[in-house]
Design brief:
This protein is of the alpha+beta class. Helix 11 crosses helix 13 and helix 13 packs antiparallel against helix 14.
């Protein structure tokens, strides 16, 4: 085995065996919600001292539009259920309806990993990595079992749907996790492997699963968000992770507040990003179907209405006065290229609107041309009879016949054929 391969193997073993003091996993997955659940309204509350992160406690941290999207149609259920190394602390449901899928919602399952149990093997199993163990989200912990009778957990038939749930991991280190997470007590520098371990938690993989090229190390370092000297965050496509950088001393430690933020405000930012991604996926699919079948103008108008509704309700890039929450949302959007994709949607929708406007202008011009072709000979004939003072019925019939003949002759000209073609073409496109 090469030196690089041996280093990856050792790193994989170290990452896979690492355990923390606080080990929390939130699992996000799409569901269908036929009716409001019989649960308490609002997000799952978390408490630190006198502060309670319920709906009222969180609304003040977000803009009004973001707060409405996150809390107006959200419910929670506290519960404690354990199976194997996982304990379920509670569940949440957030409605994220769209024009196509009015029952769409997001479920959040909050888990605590048992002390002494490595987190990464569980995350790898959730992702169905090679040689990973059985999926911990099975049996009594399966979303279908936990949400039975409340929500449908079948994978939605939508574009770009994720094959596995999105996970948000929070881990604080003990003294034994030094080489993987802790800052040097003398220099304050992070060990070289800290960001690699954070990437493993966020990507739900060990270095042997997804070897990172040396050239990509600067990009990884730039993607890590240093929330403070004590902890960092990383947002990737399949998951996000928060990792502490000094030993956790237990209850009363700073990590009480870190966990409070990670499981509330920061999780909410990622929830909003997930809803944005799903809506942009749907708008992209709607764009691809614009020219399928008749009714182009109607479909373009409906698409513009859906885009306007999305911009007014969900599309936010600055959602909070809390800086890290904004950064996490922007990082999620960047990983899924949401700003670029939405700009492309706007550009394509504008092109289609211009096309519809051009077609309608052509139809109006064609209609005016038909009126001209039909009305000019008839108007001329009737004017001549009026000037001559002739009101004989046969002369009137002769004038009408002559005007129809002139009209038919006019329609055989290049101008007449262009008018008829414009009307026929517009009718087909509509």
């Amino acid at each position: 085995m090469s030196g690089a391969g041996e280093a990856r193997r050792r790193a994989s073993e170290a990452h896979g065996a690492a355990t923390g003091v606080r080990q929390r996993i939130a699992v996000l997955l799409p569901v269908a919600l036929a009716a409001d659940p019989p649960w308490a309204a609002g997000p799952l509350p978390f408490e630190v001292g006198p502060r309670v992160a319920d709906a009222d406690g969180r609304r003040g941290l977000f803009t009004s539009a973001a707060a409405r999207a996150l809390y107006d149609r959200r419910w929670h259920l506290r519960m404690s259920r354990a199976e194997g190394p996982l304990r379920l602390d509670g569940m949440e449901l957030l409605r994220t309806p769209t024009a196509r899928s009015p029952e769409r919602a997001l479920a959040v399952l909050h888990f605590t990993v048992a002390d002494g149990t490595p987190v990464l093997p569980l995350l790898r199993a959730v992702s169905h990595r090679r040689q990973a163990g059985p999926d911990p989200l099975g049996g009594a912990m399966a979303p279908a079992a936990l949400l039975d009778g409340v929500a449908d957990t079948a994978a939605p038939a939508g574009p770009f749907a994720l094959s596995r749930p999105y996970t948000v991991t929070f881990l604080t280190p003990g003294p034994a996790l030094g080489p993987l997470a802790l800052r040097d007590p003398d220099t304050g520098e992070l060990p070289a492997g800290a960001d690699d371990f954070l990437r493993s938690l966020a990507s739900r993989s060990v270095p042997d699963d997804l070897p990172l090229a040396p050239e990509a190390l600067p990009e990884l370092r730039a993607a890590v968000r240093r929330i403070s000297a004590d902890w960092s965050a990383l947002v990737l496509r399949q998951g996000a992770a928060f990792l502490g950088h000094r030993p956790d001393t237990g209850a009363g430690d700073f990590y009480d507040w870190a966990e409070y933020n990670a499981r509330t405000v920061y999780l909410d930012a990622l929830l909003l990003g997930t809803a944005q991604r799903d809506r942009i996926d749907e708008l992209t699919d709607d764009l691809s179907a614009v020219f399928e079948g008749p009714g182009l103008a109607r479909r373009v108008a409906a698409l513009e209405q859906h885009i306007a509704l999305f911009r007014s309700t969900l599309w936010r890039q600055h959602l909070s006065a809390h800086g890290p929450a904004n950064d996490l949302l922007v990082a999620f959007q960047a990983k899924h290229r949401l700003p670029e994709r939405f700009e492309q949607i706007l550009a394509e929708a504008a092109d289609y609107a211009r096309l519809v406007q051009t077609q309608e202008s052509q139809q109006i011009a064609g209609a005016l041309g038909v009126l001209t072709v039909l009305g000019l000979p008839l108007g001329t004939a009737l004017s001549v009879l009026q000037v001559l003072g002739d009101s004989h019925p046969w002369h009137l019939a002769l004038a009408l016949g002559a005007s129809l003949a002139a009209t038919a002759a006019a329609l055989t000209t290049r101008y007449g054929r262009l008018v008829v073609s414009s009307l026929r073409g517009g009718a087909r496109r509509r």
